[in-house]
């Protein structure tokens, strides 16, 4: 009859228990090392804050105020330039509504002068009077900033400066994609087109 050795079993259990506890001991050791490092770091002396003298404080405040003044001055200069440009643009286009309303009358004058000049047996004094009024009316509008958009037959069509109301078969090959006829004159006020010329283009 065989008996089990109780000491042999206990030794085996002790070895297993040591293996189980080993990671926990390593963790404790690591925590202790980290705590020691932290304590050492806290023992490092910090640099004392340097207190500025009254003169240095005033110099710093003066530099800050000077920088603030320069920024405000730059903003004010930008504001002046912007408002000046807006004011000039306003002066240029202030009469726009009135001039646009007078353009049909100018068109009628142009057509009247053209028809009278083609008619036969026209009273010379009448034609001269109508032409004088036409020229005076046109020069008055021009003095207010009105300019005619320069578009004529044979020019390359540009949608930025003219409005094509229709396309026709080009009467000549070189008129393809170009202005064939100007139906209504265009005008601008300063750099702004207030009425685009209406044209016929060749296709």
Strand content: 5-15%
Shape: elongated
Which structural class fits the helix and strand makeup?
Answer: alpha+beta
> For the report, how would you describe the main beta sheet?
3 strands, antiparallel
Order of helices and strands: HHHHEEEEEE
Low-pLDDT stretches are 1-22
Salient structural properties:
3-stranded antiparallel sheet, elongated, single chain, 203 residues, 59% helix, alpha+beta
Question: Could you describe the 3D structure shown?
Answer:
The protein has helices at residues 6-42, 54-93, 96-118, 124-143; strands at 146-148, 163-168, 179-184, 187-189, 192-195, 198-202. It has 203 residues and is α+β, with helices and mostly antiparallel strands. It has a 3-stranded antiparallel β-sheet with strand order 1-4-5. The chain has a 3-stranded mixed β-sheet with strand order 2-6-3, with no helix packed on it. Strand 4 (187-189) and strand 5 (192-195) form a beta hairpin. Helix 3 (96-118) runs antiparallel to helix 4 (124-143). The chain is elongated and about 115 Å long. The termini are far apart.
